[in-house]
From TrEMBL:
This is Protein kinase domain-containing protein. InterPro entries: Kinase-like_dom_sf. It comes from the Eukaryota. It comes from Aegilops tauschii subsp. strangulata. Residues 11-31 are annotated as: Disordered. Residues 18-30 have a biased composition (Low complexity).
Length: 127
């Protein structure tokens, strides 16, 4: 999986600076460069990467870049579960290597509504 060119590396110019290129590459699906038409399953991969980023605290841009390199090469760190039971499973489904195996937008929205639908729950979120 290390041959996937969709993630920035520490060697890329601007990869660690906020003034670097504003590219969606960190969240791009591995199959995106080879497609000419948009497929919702491909877009779900990017949602999965953003889901991981939203549920992970980074102390610095370097820590974030290293986490994305690990995500690209090995997947989420051992023990990463997200905030709620089922977050890791949802992440794994969203970033499946086969776009057809990824959940639909409706499935993701239903999951979010069930696990994060109430603003009263937001106070219980792990930071």
């Amino acid at each position: 999986m290390s041959s996937i060119p969709c993630f920035p590396t520490l060697k890329e110019p601007g990869a660690l600076t906020s003034s670097g290129p504003a590219s969606p590459r960190p969240a791009s699906a591995p199959c995106r460069p080879h497609l000419t038409a948009r497929i919702s399953g491909v877009d779900i991969y990017s949602v999965g990467v953003m889901f991981f980023e939203l549920l992970t605290r980074f102390g610095s841009l370097l820590e974030r870049a290293l986490a994305f390199e690990e995500l690209r090469d090995k997947g989420p760190p051992d023990g990463w579960k997200g905030d709620y039971e089922g977050d890791r499973e949802l992440y794994d489904r969203m970033t499946s290597l086969k776009p057809a195996d990824r959940p639909s937008v409706d499935e993701i929205l239903m999951y979010i509504q069930q696990h994060r639908g109430s603003t009263a729950d937001m106070g219980n979120r792990r930071l």
